[in-house]
Amino acid sequence: MVEISGESLALQRLYHWERTAPQRVILTQPVGGGQLQHFTWAQVADQARRMATWLQGQGFEPGSRIGIFSKNCAWWLISDLAIWMAGHVSVPLYPTLAADSIRLILDHSEARACFIGKLDGWTSMVRGIPEDMPCVCFPLAPADAVNRYESWDAICAGTLPMQGEVQRRADELATVIYTSGTTGRPKGVMHSFGTLAWAAQAGKKQVPRFETDRVLSYLPLAHVAERVLVEQGWLATGMHIYFAESLETFAVDLVRARPTLFFSVPRLWVKFQQGVLARMPAERLDLLLRIPLVGGVVRKKILGALGLDQCRVAGGGAAPMPLALLQWYRRIGLPINEAYGMTENLAVSHCTVPGKNQEGTVGPASEGVEARVDPATGELQMRSPGLMLGYYKDPELTREAFTEDGWLHTGDKGEVDAQGCWRITGRIKDQFKTGKGKYVAPAHIEDRLCMHPAIETCMVAGANLSQPLGLVSLLPTAHANEAARQQLEAQMRGHLDDINARLDPHEQLDCLVLLKIPWTVENGFLTPTLKVKRASVEEAYGPRFEEWVQQGSKVVFAD
């Protein structure tokens, strides 16, 4: 069991670094035009103290909720510390949210103010911010927001820093993290300073991290994984955080940071792989990797080009990692550790152990975590000191989230092997029954389906159909012209045959439906962490399932 000490709480860690390493550079922020702004611990603490003074001066009651609406940047982290120092509770918002979702979260959380930062699409987002809400603009915020609201730099320049070391108790509410909503309305998950501290310590024991480590922060800080691994990991260890400037500069940002720790979602690991194979065909790469001396040179060159040549621990999570993808990365010299968790347990539940090949599982339970399987449903249930306090303003949903004896319902089916490693076999709610009365768990089929390089993302559906079908969102280049379309159709027929050959008869896909319209966060088909919103896909395409099946073709092109 990892013990929680007062010194491990977020603000105490800030004060520790402010005292012991004030001049160490720990944040590197791109500010445009190839320029970088560096922050030391002393600068982070000074700006947090000044903004905390300003927040206290607004007269909000203690424990007020304060929003943070921005892409990842240095000021995101500093504002979180300032909110806590001022005695309040932070409410992160995903920087891709539509106006209605922004308003829903700000209203539901009863937020009293909001920090506004780097954002795309601000013109359509601004109506989600209440007109009378006090807001502060980070540097790099949209120009229209800068003209509307108070400036971070101006406040820091004109406000004295808060003195002393404000303490927050372990049992105090620290943050309300709204889930990304794969199944409907987002829920506000409440976590305390104690649960955050426990998660940071447990994660550090799971994957040792040090002051000398470097990370690139680019997955949304509004998501629990980035919040725990990056923000809380930063406070716990003092490691150096680099920020990505934009999607267009991501490759440059990654090479600049040369992270020693790198975590990503499966889709990005697939894109990295596709980028490598676009420059070197798989057959040639396989041949070169088998040559002892040449293979080492090739591996070093590939990882160097990706900016991952100094990465000592690579991680994946937020969705299952296909086994074939894990095996490919191990072959090029970058084994990926797969983690499993959820917002309700601060993403600390299970993780494969660095240095051990536990591919195909999510590893053993983390230290301090208990896990069991419900014999009636096959559901993996867990408990730990990192469990949420509950859902904000929703005691009924909170009760439903736990068993009578205090175990968290994960909603995932799981099984454990003789070595104590757990395998997630699917979502209980994602299972569907075909017209033949057979249940299909789609996750393992989707893992195989998405491995084709032309596929951006996919979903297996088919409740009440004779057989399931596969819905595929293609890369834009996959159907650029008629010749490409004919080639793609032949490839997909072969891909479908390969997949069906490995499935039980009731799981075999009737057809693949190739969709030209991409699934994105913006059009509501993906969550901000790039997981498919099954309900949205079913609602959009469900009425056409029978029509597509009746065409009698293995591959169907559709809009």
Task: Please give a structural write-up.
- By secondary structure, this protein is of the alpha/beta class.
- The protein has four domains: 6-241, Rossmann fold; 258-334, no CATH class; 337-392 and 402-420, no CATH class; 432-558, GMP Synthetase, Chain A, domain 3 (2-Layer Sandwich), CATH 3.30.300.
- The chain has 19 helices and 26 strands.
- The strands form seven sheets. It has a five-stranded parallel sheet, sandwiched between helices.
- α3 links the parallel β3 and β4.
- The protein is globular and about 70 Å long.
- The model has no long low-confidence stretch (mean pLDDT 90).
- It catalyses: a long-chain fatty acid + ATP + CoA = a long-chain fatty acyl-CoA + AMP + diphosphate.
- Keywords: Fatty acid metabolism, Ligase, Lipid metabolism.
- This is AMP-binding protein.
- Residues 18-392 form the AMP-dependent synthetase/ligase domain.
- It comes from Variovorax rhizosphaerae.
